[in-house]
Amino acid sequence: MFGYYYNKSLRGLIVGFGSLFSKIEVEHKNATGTDSRIQVPITYASQEKFIQRLLYPSSITDGTRIESQLPRMSFHVNSVVADPSRRRSRFSAIGGPGAGGCSSINEFANETPVNVSMNLFAYTRHVDDMLQIIEQIIPFFVPDHTIKLELTDGGSLLNIPVVLVSNSITDKYEGDYNSRRIHIASFNFMAKSYLFGKVNTTSTITSNSIISGFTGFGLDNF
Questions:
Q1: Number of domain units in the chain
Q2: Is 29 among the domain residues?
Q3: What pLDDT is stored for residue 156 in this prediction?
Q4: What would the DSSP string read from start to end of 179-201?
Q5: Beta strand 112-124 with 72-82: parallel, antiparallel or unpaired?
Q6: Which domain covers residue 119, as residue numbers?
Q7: Domain membership flag for residue 155
Q8: Cα distance between residue 191 and residue 59, in whole Å
Q9: For residues 126 and 47, what is the distance between their CA atoms, to the nearest angstrom?
Q10: What is the pTM of this model?
């Protein structure tokens, strides 16, 4: 309706959110006394999709498959809701030079504050793995953690608070009580971000443009 544009604001937020948890590790103590650390992989997927993939029948037994693939993490976006309480001016000239170089700037119209709800899930085979992951997440959100993101191409860095809203711990297993269990820690976050409308290029007033405007009007007399 208003013409195509794509500032990749949500994409940048999702990538930035996932990178917060890309270096989480769990430590396993071996019988030989040598400790080993495992970096927990993280992917973009819902909880239901990830569990179905984990429990999908294969030639490997369920216990071996779960043991070899866990621990893992996943996250996904739940909703994007406008937040009128943080609305600023209709136009925000936060971009860099436009197509005209220094004589123009990019102006992002219709800046809209949004609250983006996202879920993070941690799947582990051992309870101790899950507890290690939880302790590496919650202390950084008291109650929020601010990340700096460039939500538009050529735009300035913005401070985006990410709030930990709630968390829970559940167990999931298939079959009888002797089957392998999956421990799941769920975290609900809300990121106070922004969406930007179509980029407009506007001219700027410079000293050179003012002087050139007096050409032919007896500039030497000034």
A1: 1
A2: yes
A3: 77
A4: SPEEEEEEEEEEEEEEE---EEE
A5: antiparallel
A6: 9-212
A7: yes
A8: 41
A9: 18
A10: 0.74
Q: Which of 80-89, 107-116, 204-213 has the highest mean pLDDT?
A: 80-89
Q: Does 222 map to a domain? A: no
Q: Which two tokens stand for residue 172?
A: 């999931």
Residue 17, judged by CB atoms within 10 A of its CB (0-12, 13-18, 19+), counts as: buried
Rounded to the nearest 10 degrees, the angle between the axes of helix 47-54 and helix 62-69 is 130
pLDDT of 168 higher than 90: yes
Q: What is the pLDDT of residues 20-59, one digit of tens each?
A: 999 999 998 877 766 788 899 999 988 887 777 776 655 5
Give the position of tokens 């621990």: 71
Helix and strand numbers (H, E) in the chain are 5, 12
What are the two backbone dihedrals, phi and then psi, of residue 198, each rounded to the nearest 5 degrees?
Answer: -65, 140
CATH number at residue 173: 3.30.2000.40
Residue with tokens 């693939």: 69
What's the CA gap between 127 and 2, in Å, rounded?
Answer: 52
- The residue type at 39: Q
The dihedrals phi and psi of 196, each to the nearest 5 degrees, come to -120, 145
Is residue 131 one of the residues assigned to a domain?
A: yes
- Average pLDDT of the segment spanning 99-105: 55
CB 110 within 8 A of CB 213: no
How does the average pLDDT of the chain come out, rounded? 78
